[in-house]
Amino acid sequence: MVTALKKLGFRKVFDTNTGADLTIMEEANEFVERFKNKGTLPMITSCSPGWVKYIEMNYPELLPHLSTCKSPHEMFGSILKSYYAEKNGIDPKKIFVVSVMPCIAKKFERQREELKNDELDNVDCVITTRELARMIKQAGIEFTDLEDSQFDSPMGEASGAGAIFGTTGGVMEAALRTAYEWITGEELKKLNFEEVRGKEGIKKATIKIGDLDVKVAVAHGLGNAQEIMEEMKSGKADYQFVEIMACPGGCIMGGGQPIKSAKIRMTVDVRKKRADALYTIDEKSVIRKSHENPVMKKLYEEYLGKPRKP
Ligand code: SF4
Fold first, then answer.
1. Of 14, 93, 169, 179, which is least packed with CB atoms within 10 Å of its CB?
2. How confident is the model over 179-224, as pLDDT tens digits?
């Protein structure tokens, strides 16, 4: 894909999973702060713009539960137009950021006024993976003949935690890996949180973080999200952390993904295959925790200082 994008004319190609690591740095920190200081809980993830729009329209009274974090590609765009621009002596106004996403809602999200920094959009254009596939075909590029190439540095490295973001339960698992170590100060040995994996519409679990019990819930698809919201409204929910993704299965089954033929739909469990692929990338990654990604370490050391800088 990197080679194809370069052939299509993009000067630099970065990995959105690096943005996912940045989201975890911020989101895990926010969760730890709320958890320790008795802030608004449960904290609910905010990286799915389809979900954010849904809660805004249907449960505005629960908005304080949303994490304050932007989605990964928005965070990444803001870093490209600040840290990366400064480091490379580029006028941020001359950077045009295009996000390739599995998501149609991100086309709307990128236009949100409240996400701008210094009057600039973080991301200038969003194309879906379906649109990218068409562009590659229209340009006459034979995808299977392309040589592999690497993402551009210094922002091209991502952890396994960043990779699993795309499937239901992945954001929760990535955040727990980091939150565990930040809360306990101890190394997390067992990185897989099987409790939050799988295709059930709503997954609930109690996660041991040191001596503490953290109650979590993971929902995908807006019908399941609604169930959790109603539970919260009625006061029956006792979770501390909730992950919600609008699309059934998460971003791997996002509305912008290539449309599958009827034959494939009937014969292949595409959702499972895509989720398995992400978990395999994670298992094979040398770095599997967002806060251990050297790109993150450098970014915070050189530029951001600490998470949740206004
Ligand atoms: S779950 Fe769907 S709406 Fe949400 S970010 Fe992923 S693709 Fe977009």
1. 93
2. 999 999 999 999 999 999 999 999 999 999 999 999 999 999 999 9
Which residues have any ligand 1 atom within 6 Å of their CB?
A: 48-51, 102-103, 105-106, 245-247, 250-251, 254
Set 38, 94, 113, 114: catalytic member: 114
Q: What is the dihedral of CA 187, 189, 195, 198, to 10 degrees?
A: 110
Taking the model in full, what pTM does it have?
A: 0.95
Mean pLDDT rounded to a whole number for the chain: 96
Residues 6+ apart with CB under 8 A from 297: 291
30 is catalytic: yes
> Quick count: other Cβ atoms within 10 Å of Cβ 7?
13
CATH class of 2-290: alpha beta
Distance 96 CA to ligand 1 centre (A): 23
pLDDT confidence tier of residue 154, bands split at 50, 70 and 90: confident
